[in-house]
What does this fold into?
Amino acid sequence: QVQLVESGGGLVQAGGSLRLSCAASGRTFSYYNAGWFRQAPGKEREFVAAIARSGSGTYYTDSVKGRFTISIDNAKNTVYLQMNSLIPEDTAVYYCARGIGVPSRRQSGYEYWGQGTQVTVSS
It folds into this structure.
């Protein structure tokens, strides 16, 4: 079956870095755009970053601009989120998603979702 699996989450001190990966199996996703979302306890799931399938365009929510970088490697069928200068407000479960349409800030723009990986940033 088609499956997306996130990895790379964990516990890190404020100011540190993490690199999240989202590996796909069951099919090749070279024609799919990619996005990252996150959900903190008691909060709604929110958009973090998106990238065109070709890697030619990237989009970020204001709170992570200059700190996070989304990238895609179609040869490995994998999407990445490099997170630098982490702050406690970044603590959340992070989800990757893939969609056939244009890169989107909305959850409805994606057809496939991973199970999420926990990121915890301590003070």
